[in-house]
Amino acid sequence: MLLVDCHKKFLSYLRLEKDYSKETVKSYRIDFNHFLKFLDKENAEPELEKVTTPMIRDFITYMAHDLGFHPNTIRRRIHSLKSFFKFCMTQEYIEKNPTLAVSVPKKRQALPIYISQDDLMQLIQAPLEYGGQRTRIRDWLMLRTLALTGLRRQELLNLQWRDVCLRDSNILVRNGKGDKDRLIPIPSALVDDLRMYKDMRVTTDYAPVFPSVSGKRLGPRPLSSMFTKYVHLAGLDGKHYSPHKIRHSFATFLLQKNVSLIEIQELLGHADITSTRIYLHTNSNRLKDAVMSNPILELNMESGFTAAF
Questions:
Q1: What pLDDT, in 10s, does the model give residues 82-136?
Q2: Nearest-CA neighbor of 197 among 182, 210, 180, 214?
Q3: Which class does domain 3-90 fall in?
Q4: Which helix (H) or strand (E) holds 105?
């Protein structure tokens, strides 16, 4: 059986039976296409029964040494292949799983880069100073909305006016990561901004909140280009900022204000609190304050050395 035919069945299984989101299924397809390109480079037959454990290991070496991929990228692609071949085993397409004996690199948990308050203010103001006549207000409000809601980039782009309830001061995120909906309360200042912005436009319930100049839904690339432009104009080059870093800032600032991890997890739409815990490491002073709040310190005990002698 051809690999590509079997993988189509696998993707259908993920979408229809496992109820994976379109974005997740797309990631599995992209990962698999990289494996197909590798097989083509090696002049290997793209047949299911011909894939062996050494070929999978050669693929790992190729990604690490020839392409210089990050261990986390390699880890994800091998996990994708493992899931695929496990599916093939359960469907009895193959008798032996070639990925079973293959180990994946350990995940590197990098500390999130977040934008400082001063830098974030400079960035948000940049559209008002340097933006075009037709886009400056939209761009300013997009950055402001990201900073005050912690939305993911795609969630922001998917927003329609029916999702913004100005009366109840909240935003409904439809089909977020994992195809889950969540409700995000928004501060009154943002409510006022969105109301004035809406009054400036001819809108419908299903119109995108932040459209392109032509009125259509804005895409990820134009948003990234817009963001990069304002980072440069705000004098913030070289700091590796991206739209997602605003989301990191949102979570970090809330944590610094003693908002609980559970509440931050709910606002960010994390399925697992492990994803939220990374923000604990962004503020060592907060951890120090936690240690210093130990009630034992209030007992006015003598130091250990004094008491011992």
A1: 999 999 999 999 999 999 999 877 766 666 778 999 999 999 999 999 999 999 9
A2: 210
A3: mainly alpha
A4: none
